[in-house]
Amino acid sequence: MNTEVSLFGYMLQMRSHLLANKITEIHQLRNHSPEQDRKEMIEWRSKLFQHLGYALSENYEKAQAEIQDWADLKEQKVPHEYSLTYYLNSVFYSRNLILSVLENEINDNTVSSAALLEILKVIDPLLDHATSSLTNNYTMNTYHTETDEDLIITLEELKDFKFALNEATIFAVTDQNNIISYVNDHFCKISKYSRDELIGKNHGEIFKSGYHTEEYLDNILHSIHQGKVWKGEICNKAKDGTLYWVDTTIIPYLNYDGKTYKHISIQYDITEQKKTEEMLLKSEKLSLVGELAAGLAHEIRNPLTTIKGMVQVLQETTEDKKVLYSDIILTEIDRINYIVSEFMVLAKPHAIYFTECSLTDILKKVIYLLEAEANLKNVVILHDFIEEDVTLHGEKNQLTQVFVNLIKNAMEALPNGGIIRVSTALVKDKVRISIEDNGVGMTEEQVKKIGEPFYTTKATGTGLGLMVSYKIIQNHNGSISVKSELNKGTTFDITLPLIENNAMSTYSSTNKK
Length: 513
Fold this sequence. Notes:
- With 513 residues, this protein is an alpha+beta fold.
- Strand 11 and strand 12 form a beta hairpin.
- Mean pLDDT is 78; it is low at 503-513.
- Helix 5 packs antiparallel against helix 6 (113-143).
- A five-stranded antiparallel sheet has the order 2-1-5-4-3, sandwiched between helices. It has a five-stranded mixed sheet with strand order 7-9-10-12-11.
- It has helices at residues 3-14, 16-31, 38-57, 60-70, 84-107, 113-143, 148-168, 185-191, 195-198, 203-206, 214-225, 271-314, 319-347, 359-376, 396-412, 444-449, 464-475, 500-511, and strands at residues 170-175, 180-183, 230-237, 243-254, 260-269, 355-358, 379-384, 391-394, 418-427, 430-437, 479-485, 489-497.
- The radius of gyration is 35 Å and the shape is elongated.
């Protein structure tokens, strides 16, 4: 063997890991996604360079046999669930890298033209051998690991699965551009479109109801294109203009590059369930409004008394003092207007729209709304909010209802007066709202039942308030946890996700302090 050829072979063996790592970087760059099992893939690719180097420097026949073993994925510690093209790319990139190294060696005059030809004569057939061995082994492992009987059972099972999906769910298949390629009969029935009217249409456009924001719909597509399964509730519009709700799971199909090439949606009709939830929300809201009325009447009576006194004084005062008294009257009228406006926001029916809203503003208005009732019950409401403005994607009125409910519950747990603390804190990409009281507390058994329908610790309660609150927070992709100790107090922790950009900026600015 030519000395230059042998030296190049030793060099390939020494640089095998470096070159294998380079292939992994190329794979990641071209496929725009990190490679799973990176360590195992680098080790597997480096072996090919070692075998090629060994063929150039030591023994061609032995290297050829080792490449045959290298191509048997079952014998290697390497994942073998990807497509054949995925593995063949490793051979293709190896050839390109070796040619690139040879070009540099020629430019540096370390490899002669004669040695170059000899190197290529050895490496080219071995790389072809690697390609054919991979193809043969992959085909054998894919199609001959199961018996014919196993395959028949699998096909029968798939047939049953398809029948079950078609019969039990609202089912559709769309391509990477969200164009519908298949729908079942249930899908046509609920949407009131025929199959011919749906095939070829954009799934996201044809059913757009106007209920969800563009941001909400874009987030769904973003999750799917990232290869993530999306679960949630969607309001769609049927052909006749009626709205219907579906509990939806969207499952993306990924190719060997990790990119989505189609996805299926499995849906269940929850329209009646949503109507029931809406009735419960309205019922609980009316109950809250009734409970708030007494406290608000007292709060409005105070400025009315002030106004009445000022008007009487105005009749008997000089001109220069009338301006001062007029300003006081206007201020008190503004106060009444604000209280009534906030009360009406909570009381009146409204459409539910998720928008960007300030958590701090919502909490401050809730505390202001309840301060009158708190004063009557000898309760002090303290608050500790983070300085940064926390923005959520949610329904302001529903969140208001949750916080009013929880703070009123805290007041009722303080029959002899006490302190309620409302605080906020950032937890990575989420915000935690804590409502803490030093009241009567609950037993462990009572805490376990919190949120169940019709369960209440109050003599005149319905048990629906907390159940509705739990559902609202769930619909906001949040969670509620409860900590309580008898005769020491209770803490409700509500965790809600921040809007993505806001979460990054708020969290980073907090960490700088």
